[in-house]
Amino acid sequence: MEHRTFLKGTTTGAAAAIAVTGVATSAETRVPVVGPQAMEKQQMPRIKTRDGTELYAKDWGDKGGRPVVLIHGYPLNADSFDRLAMKLVEAGYHVINYDRRGFGRSGQPWQGYDWDTYSDDLADVMQATGATQDVTVIGYSMGGGECARYMSRHGGKGIIKLGLYASVVPGMFKSDDNPAGHTAKDYEDIVAGIEKDAPAFYRHTFLLPFYGKGIKSLVGAAHAASDDVIEAAVNQALTGSMRAQTAMPHNFTFGDFTGDVPAITVPTLILHGTEDKPAPIDATARRAHKMIPHSMLIEYEGHPHGFYATNSDQMIADTLAFMKQ
Q: By CB distance 3.0 to 4.6 Å, which of 80, 131, 196, 259 could disulfide with 67?
């Protein structure tokens, strides 16, 4: 069962300058950094950001199609969005699906694990792939934070629609105004678990509620992911650097996007599972829906944080419907 609510408003635009970046090749071949036109011809999988970090990107589909940029959740990589990416390409869209810095096949620098840098990375990915106008950006989990910060820091340049899927926006830290949020101890437990034994922590602690394991409600238990999905997620998580794995929990626990949300002036699709434990729906999606006057909220009854795996068909259908609006 799904619960859908709608809010309507006017859409305004803003602009901000974004540094032009390009694509770097492997160390064996030295060539100049190139822009999006050259990238289209060379099909380079890596994008060089403004601070020199290289990001791995899957640039799929007809380059003449309307662009869609996908930003995966923590602690996974772009592979988690592959099925959605394929269906979008089959529907005629140009899809860019990239690994966040520090995770997957992207560079693993010491610095840059903050919302401003991540939003700059998004700007650089868009520029390098030619996704500079009529763009839809979909952020999953902490990817929603990047979307919100991009809208305020970069003026929403080029973006006509947003998707906030299982998103952390507008903030997850527990307070009098946000009693459903997380505490500092929750953050400390994540970091301690990763530092002590990351494989065991992901497999037996962090990713179980992420995918609906251990949820007591009958509806929630019926939507838990398979053990195979969890094993695949553990493998994805472990491709990230220890530095990135331990730096980001602070940001998504304490991140406050209430100042960024007013800059979201485009139609926004909010998808969220009612049994989401990492990003509780009352702390995130329901608050975001109230704050974004032109948003549509679809609640996936009984589904967990990782509904991209447990409710994939419906997520794809809702995304394609939103793209056609």
A: 131
2-176+248-324 fold: Rossmann fold (3.40.50)
Q: Please, which residues bridge with residue 56 across strands?
A: 46
Residues with Cβ within 8 Å of 296's Cβ and at least 6 positions away in sequence, in order, are 4, 5, 6, 7, 267, 268, 269, 270, 322
Mean pLDDT lowest among 14-28, 180-194, 198-212, 309-323: 14-28
- Delimit the domains of the chain by residue range: 2-176+248-324
Report in angstroms the alpha-carbon separations of 26 from 45, 56, 90, 108, 157: 10, 12, 30, 15, 30
Average pLDDT over residues 66-87: 98
pLDDT in tens, 124-179: 999 999 999 999 999 999 999 999 999 999 999 999 999 999 999 999 999 999 99
The two three-digit tokens of residue 92, written as one number = 């005629």
Q: H helices within the chain, ranges in order? A: 36-42, 82-90, 115-129, 143-153, 184-201, 207-210, 218-221, 227-237, 242-254, 285-291, 307-310, 312-324
Q: In the predicted model, what is the mean pLDDT of residues 188-200?
A: 97
CB 164 within 8 A of CB 55: no
Of 181, 131, 124, 155, the closest CA to residue 260 belongs to: 155
Coil, helix or strand for 201? helix
Residue 170 preceded by cis peptide, ω within 30: yes
Q: Which two tokens stand for residue 105?
A: 């096949």
**Helices 184-201 & 242-254, crossing angle to 10 degrees?**
150
Catalytic residues: 141, 276, 305
Asked whether the beta carbons of 24 and 48 are under 8 A apart, the reply is: yes
Please give the pLDDT value at position 28.
36
Average pLDDT, the chain: 89
Contacts of 217 (CB under 8 A, 6+ apart): 275, 302
